[in-house]
Amino acid sequence: MEALILAGGTILAGVFACTAWFWGANLALDLICPARGPQAGRNILRANMVRPWLFIGPAVLFLGLYLVYPVLKSTLMSFQDASGARFVGLANYRWLAGDAKFREAILNNFLWLLVVPATATFIGLVAAQITDRIRWGKFAKSMIFMPMAISFVGAGVIWKFIYDFRAEGLAQIGLLNAFWVWLGHSPQTWLTLPFWNNFLLMAVLIWIQTGFAMVILSAALRGIPEETVEAAILDGANPWQLFFRIKVPQIWGTIAVVWTTITITVLKVFDIVFVMTNGEWGTQVLANMMYNWMFRGAPDYGRGSAIALVIMALVTPMMIWNIRAARRETG
Amino acid sequence: MEGMAGRSARLTWAVNLAAALLVVLWVVPTLGLLVSSFRDRDQIAASGWWRAAFPATASSFVRAGTAADQVEMNGLWVIAGSVLAPGQGLQAWGTSARAPEAYAPGDVADLKAGAALTVAADGRYQLTSPTPFTEKRGLRIFVTTIAPPRATFENYARVIGAEGLGRAFLNTMTVTIPATVIPILIAAFAAYALAWMQFAGRALLLAAVVGLLVVPLQLALIPLLRLHNEIGLGKGYLGIWLAHTGFGLPLAIYLLRNYMAGLPKEIIESARVDGATEFQIFIRIILPLSFPALASFAIFQFLWVWNDLLVATVFLGNRPDQLVMTGVLRELLGSRGGDWEILAASAFISIAVPLLVFFALQKYLVRGLLAGSVKGG
């Protein structure tokens, strides 16, 4: 309970400190460089140069300290030994190259990259198209979008229940095994099934991300100029042609955005694997492997950082693409 | 309603059916756990949750009384009692394991040496014999019982108290609220400067913000934890608030700047001409107009912080009284992996608030998503 009071106090203190800073700093600037008197022109010019930095200063400080500094520091640590005491050159990366678990993790990550963005985007596109055509579309959308609000851990519990296993002969309470037994097979411990268990974990992320893809693609579909659609109908296009030949080509840009956004999420996927299998039975991924090296047993910050840098390297192309897209838009 | 010409009734049906299928597919996983959270341990183990709405039948046996329980009545020796627990109904019964459903309620089974057994529909049985019973162990009566569907709130009561979820709920609140409010404050000012003020390095800063949007959080954990330790912050709420503020800022600045840049130029310029200071313009004009974008980001950040496991695991301690709900859930998955009644109720307490926020404020969430993504294309 006292923690909540502390939280309330912090919010008040935070709000107060922020307001005080912005208000006070602005006032101070106005006092130092008054827009009156003999040097009014010079003062206004000066104030205008300083003021943006008053507004943006705290943000720059936070971004620098909590994002830029850690990236640089991690890069440095990836060239150091377990405790960060001395430099070991490329030893950590050489170790990575030869490590079987790392190879498994990176292959799995690529498998995730191949499957999840494509599936989620495709189902999202189909869902967007069909929910726009029905009277209860709004409700349908909200149901498909709902998993977005559920934590990865919560989703892990939900899906682990679906994959639950009971010995043969007992009542199967996991949906998948119940269905499997109903088809006449014997129940499986799904999450330990090599290779296929990866897809069962991916199903969780697809379940979460499809709603996101649907919402964005639905807006894009609605933004398509009416004329193109009407012209196609007049020319006798059937609904399939209308969708795949006329509509989809016009929203490629948005599809690409959705795809890359999900790709970035996939590269960082951690919680799902962490709580469902913890990377055992051949399901290791980079983010979970990094966590293991950094926080399990005897931590090895060097190796952990090296893995983190690999994730960073995989994300970088998306980052550059993002920046270029944003710059194009703002001109 | 474009495309009427190309649509037939069959297509409409197919579309409705496909939508229904998708919705069912997407809702069923959550529904399964929700239903299970209202069933007790035995119910969960006895049948799949999809049977929860139907009466549950179960087979078992009950031992009749022993010789010590017999009474003499009208020249007959009688042992009487009930085979049912409260709330159960009797479907069938039997006297041997090979034919446990041999008799219907009310039937009379003839046993050896003139003895007879009858079990009524209400569960009362009567074992009669012309000679005194000598059994030291009671006769086994096999029963097939039927229990009406029933829901229980016990799981919830239990996890909130004994499993520490009540405490974790408060912890999560404590983490989430400041971690949502503080970044908004800082980002709003920065976004205004980036959208409406001229200064050297603006474009570069904007590009940096977009780039930082995708920096993997994993990279930041160890350096920041060490930094916190060095400056004496250690593990605690202040540390996690600051960390979440830092991690949330790029998206906050990006969303807010995009929104503010779209506000009509005339308003701001006429305010400047009227002699308003930048600070006044920001507080009086920009902030109120940006409410939709502020709400969008607040929802994102709230959901993200509430649902986060990694940052909380690293920046808060792992003592039971320091865990947030995702942390408790993770512990339970490890230690009580098979106790679905506990897991289901816990999971639902942890996702109840995000779901509420989601359904109440979906409009803003969608708007924020669109602002963040479609524009970038």
TrEMBL record, chain A:
Pfam families with a match to the protein in the record: BPD_transp_1
InterPro entries named in the record: MetI-like (IPR000515), MetI-like_sf (IPR035906), UgpAE/MalFG_permease (IPR050809)
Compartment list: Cell membrane
Lipid bilayer topology: Multi-pass membrane protein
Main localization, broad class: membrane
GO cellular component terms, A-Z: plasma membrane
Keywords: Cell membrane, Membrane, Transmembrane, Transmembrane helix, Transport
Matches recorded under Gene3D superfamilies: MetI-like (1.10.3720.10)
Signal peptide: none
UniProt GO BP: transmembrane transport
Residue span, ABC transmembrane type-1 domain: 106-322
Transmembrane segments: 6-29, 50-69, 110-131, 143-162, 199-221, 251-276, 301-321
Similarity remark: Belongs to the binding-protein-dependent transport system permease family.
Protein name: Maltose ABC transporter membrane protein /trehalose ABC transporter membrane protein /sucrose ABC transporter membrane protein
UniProtKB/TrEMBL annotation, chain B:
Main subcellular location of this protein, as a coarse class: membrane
Transmembrane annotation, as ranges: 12-35, 175-196, 203-225, 237-260, 281-306, 342-361
A Pfam family annotated for this UniProt entry: BPD_transp_1
Gene Ontology process terms (BP): transmembrane transport
A GO CC term attached to the entry: plasma membrane
Membrane topology, as annotated: Multi-pass membrane protein
Keywords: Cell membrane, Membrane, Transmembrane, Transmembrane helix, Transport
Occurrences of domain ABC transmembrane type-1 (ranges): 169-361
Signal sequence, renumbered to the chain: none
Subcellular location: Cell membrane
InterPro entries on file: MetI-like, MetI-like_sf
Protein family according to the UniProt entry: Belongs to the binding-protein-dependent transport system permease family.
Protein name listed in UniProt: Maltose ABC transporter membrane protein /trehalose ABC transporter membrane protein /sucrose ABC transporter membrane protein
Organism, as annotated: Rhodobacter maris
